[in-house]
Amino acid sequence: MSNIKKGNFHKIHPLFSLSIAMTLVGTVSLTIANDEEFMSPLSEEKDIVPISKTIDVVTEQQSIAEKVVSESAVQETIENILSAEIVDVLKSPKIAESYRVQPSMDFSVSDKRKLGGFRIIENGPALTQEQIKQFQTIVLDTNQYSLDQIKKCPFRPELGFLFEKDGKRVEFLLSMGCDKYLVVQDKVEKQGDYHNSARQPLLELRNALFPLKAN
């Protein structure tokens, strides 16, 4: 190389010139190949998940999770309203009896003649299987209870039910004029309101058990 003079590059040995050219071409080719390898994930659409599709998947997963939580909440709500033991008795009672009760407290009679602390004034018939199912459809439906509103009218019951199962006793009283209920189980009382939508089916049940007498 020391014998090469300025302007005499054309006199370089042909094999040496070819070696330099191949080296330069190989370098350029390697650079291009590396660039293509680096860019290939971005250029292939099949490797890229569209943002809209990702959002749809997340939304669907959230909907499923919310549905599971909602169903669990509904299942627990009826037990929170009444209690697990009360619900168990109401679902499959061995005894189901109906009564008319005095709307006001009466302390002059024994507890044997009372239902939920109210005096029994008339014994009604035992509920048929169809009437039990009708009652269950109403009282075991969480949508029939008014949980966010409390009516100011006093609780004055007129209709009562007694349910028994495996030694467990549940007394269920209804104040038809104010849409209120009182449930007593093992001296534990639960009182609240039910929606107006439950009034008509309860009235129909009452009229079937205690038909109105003609004057």
Please name the defining characteristics of this protein.
5 helices, 8-stranded antiparallel beta sheet, single chain, 2 domains, Dna Ligase, domain 1, 215 residues, disordered N terminus, alpha+beta
What does it look like?
The structure is a single chain. With 215 residues, the chain is an alpha+beta fold. Helix content is 43%, strand content 24%. The chain folds into 2 domains: 12-46; 84-209, 2-Layer Sandwich (Dna Ligase, domain 1), CATH 3.30.1490. Strands 2-3-1-5-6-7-8-4 form an 8-stranded antiparallel β-sheet, covered by helices on one side. It starts with 13 loop residues before the first helix and ends in a 6-residue tail after the last helix.
Uncertain runs are 1-46, 68-75
Secondary structure: number of strands: 8
Oligomer description: single chain
Give the class-level CATH name of the largest domain.
Alpha Beta
Architecture of the largest domain, according to CATH? Answer: 2-Layer Sandwich
**Beta-strand fraction estimate:** 15-25%
From the spread of the alpha carbons, the general shape counts as elongated
Number of domains: 2
Q: Could you tell me how far the N terminus lies from the C terminus, measured between alpha carbons in angstroms? A: 136 Å
Instruction: Give the averaged pLDDT, no decimals.
Output: 77
The helix-and-strand class reads: alpha+beta
Radius of gyration: 41 Å
Strand order of the largest sheet: 2-3-1-5-6-7-8-4
Can you count the helices? 5
CATH topology category name of the largest domain: Dna Ligase, domain 1
Helix content: 40-55%
Would you list the SSEs in sequence order as H and E? HHHEEEHEEEEEH
Biggest sheet overview: 8 strands, antiparallel
